[in-house]
TrEMBL record:
This is Tryptophan synthase beta chain. Pathway: Amino-acid biosynthesis; L-tryptophan biosynthesis; L-tryptophan from chorismate: step 5/5. The keyword Amino-acid biosynthesis applies. The beta subunit is responsible for the synthesis of L-tryptophan from indole and L-serine. The lineage of its organism: Bacteria, Bacillati, Bacillota, Clostridia, Halanaerobiales. It comes from Halonatronomonas betaini. Keywords: Amino-acid biosynthesis, Aromatic amino acid biosynthesis, Lyase, Pyridoxal phosphate, Tryptophan biosynthesis.
Length: 396
């Protein structure tokens, strides 16, 4: 079944020149996604190249700290390249090869999608260029080095807020000009159809594994699942296989940045309105005239003014609750997991971890929470180092 729309959300709002490329992508994907040879090749890459299945880890020290429900972490940070992004790029690179494309482009914010794209382009010997906002290049220097080591060109974007939205604009312009030779690997469940459905399908392995693993460990489904939401790919990936399990509470955590009241945040579903951005209809941050306004988060991967259309649908039908966590709360969670469990989380994932502070005290010891640890935090060490230096200066 294809899903061009999720109720009123989704669709295709793109230049006419992109329609043939989207049709080709859609037809190819719908044809081969049930093809056994494609499924076997994809499954083998996930297992032998990326390292799946990723563990479902019982966070004993974190559980002791909150003195409440049992807390489990889905360890997507242990994937090859350090985040869930590789699940999607492996699937899309196989599609690109199938369509005979010679060149790959992508956009990236935190750099994890850029690294995953550069990795699969190297593995399959395709030219690769990554668009990245100038501010994100500074925040995520380590991932820029990785992309360049893998042979990709990193193209700085100096327009607008110099972050993910502006990088996406530039990638779309490139695709319009080079659509015959180029496949655009979108990194989240955003963009025109078929991207939201296709990226979700490549990411739902997270939830499928989680369901099997928690039943093996606990003999029942979890009571709560938490995941951070920027564009929303890791959240859709873990939520999707549980959507029909009504007893499982699904909570998506957006970035409140410097605080909802300051206006400097990225809480699109919580504070945005319905509009069109980057080819699909969904919630987005906009002013009274309908102009998109800049998003802000300490986490480059959540610093995006839109969200995947399926998330807007899940909000509309009240299947997923969306809430938010600010920069300072995320930093505290970053510290807590690092010091308690010896796991350094990505700042994106730290938003989901921080929500434990609000949720766990309300639950009993016989309940279970799964947090999707979507990426590892070595890319954020420079940011964290600056934070610690600023705190030290204030104390002195």
């Amino acid at each position: 079944m294809t899903q061009k729309y999720f109720s009123e959300y989704g669709g295709r709002y793109v230049p006419e020149t992109l329609i043939p490329a989207l049709d080709e992508l859609s037809q190819t994907y719908q044809t081969i996604k049930e093809d056994n040879s494609f499924k076997e090749e994809y499954k083998a890459l996930l297992a032998d190249y990326s390292g799946r299945p990723t563990p479902l880890y019982y966070a004993e020290k974190l559980t002791e700290y909150y003195q409440g429900p049992e807390i489990y972490l889905k360890r997507e940070d242990l994937n090859h390249t350090g985040a869930h992004k590789i699940n999607n790029t492996l699937g899309q690179i196989l599609l690109a090869k199938k369509m005979g494309k010679e060149r790959i482009i992508a956009e990236t914010g935190a750099g994890q999608h850029g690294v995953a794209t550069a990795t699969v382009a190297a593995r399959f010997d395709l030219d690769c260029e990554i668009y990245m906002g100038a501010e994100d290049i500074e925040r995520q220097a380590l991932n820029v080095y990785k992309m360049e080591m893998l042979g990709a060109g990193v193209i700085p974007v100096n327009t607008g807020s110099k972050t993910l939205k502006d990088a996406t604009n530039q990638a779309i312009r490139d695709w319009v000009s080079n659509v015959e030779s180029t496949h655009y690997i979108i990194g989240s469940v955003v963009g025109p159809y078929p991207y939201p459905e296709m990226v979700r399908d490549f990411q739902k392995i997270i939830g499928e594994e989680t369901k099997k693993q928690i039943i093996n460990k606990k003999g029942k489904l979890p009571d709560y699942i938490l995941a951070c939401v920027g564009g929303g790919s890791n959240a859709i990936g873990i939520f999707h296989p549980f959507v029909d399990d009504q007893d499982v509470n699904l909570i998506g955590i957006e970035a409140a940045g410097e605080g909802i009241d300051t206006g400097r945040h990225a809480a699109t579903l919580s504070e945005g309105r319905v509009g069109v951005l980057h080819g699909s209809r969904s919630y987005l941050l906009q002013d009274q005239d309908g102009q998109v306004i800049p998003a802000h988060s300490i986490s480059a991967g959540l610093d995006y003014p839109g969200v995947g259309p399926e998330h807007s649908h899940l909000k509309a039908i009240n299947r997923v609750r969306y809430d938010y966590i600010d920069d300072q709360e995320a930093i505290q969670a970053f510290r807590l997991l690092s010091e308690r469990e010896g796991i350094i989380p990505a700042l994106e994932s730290s938003h989901a971890l921080a929500y434990l502070e609000k949720l766990a005290p309300k639950l009993s010891q016989d309940q279970t929470i799964v947090v999707n640890l979507s990426g590892r935090g070595d890319k954020d060490i420079n940011n964290f180092k600056k934070i610690r230096e600023a705190e030290a200066d204030e104390q002195n």
